[in-house]
Please model this.
Amino acid sequence: MTVPSLKSKEIKRDTETVTRFYETIPTTVQRLLVPSEDDTLSFEHVDITPIASQDSVIEIIQQARRLIFPGYFIQTRMDSINLGSFLCQEAMALFNRLSQQIVLSIQHECLRLDMPCSKCLESSHKTAFQFIQSLPDLKTILAGDIDAAFAGDPAAKSYDEIIFSYPGLFAITVYRVAHLLFELDIPLLPRIMTEHAHNLTGIDIHPGAQIGESFVIDHGTGVVIGETTIIGKHVRIYQGVTLGALSLPKQAGNKFRGKKRHPTIEDNVIIYSSATILGGSTTIGARSVIGGNVWITKSVPPDTKVMLEEPRLIFQKKPKGIQHEDF
Model:
């Protein structure tokens, strides 16, 4: 008779322990299926049409970028002979994927709000076609954004460097793609797009914001641009800038939803790092310069320079025998 080794006993004991854990998991799952009376809110998405796919929406962004910037974001050689064929195939693939995701997002919204049938399949194809028709104009606008970034940044050695590597341009590109869908009244997809860019760059631009041509976000980390923000032409902002809303009362979401809550920035304005500009009635006049770290909740006239008072530097002589500063 073989005597079980110490190791085999340990394996058996571990197996029994894991089995006990397995046996208790269904109880926890049942609690997930049947929330307790203390759970006032419970969210699920079952027994209804599938929701839009985040992975597919991200691929839509990549397809749009490949169409807008031919040859930049592919691994194979691109030349004038096969360019037309490639773009046609890419546009058709984008049309199919976008149509499918639009259908899912509309169905989700209709079921969520108990809306009458909107013939979503037919309208999704029409909307996807309108989106693709808008891409040439979008390409022109983005070319202006790239040129403005290059003209104002001595560190940029080429347009290619900006297209490939600048987080500000990536966030602006995704915003402009998402804004097209937002303007076409497509639910959910625009916000998935801009939050994807937010996750990658730290730049948070709501797809509902209205942003003019030749827009530049330099460095970019921490920038926030709210839903009802209006930005004119040739505006440049730096990292940490917030174009936001004033604090709202509790449960004020429905009351203020859809109303102007964020500032207006007129043409040719520069806003330096960590400036905070709040409120729907706040307007920064054309050609103004907003210095870093300022807090603004009232309108600023055109041609105004706003900055904090220059700090006073205090120089102290270090007493003999002191090895470090004592503040």
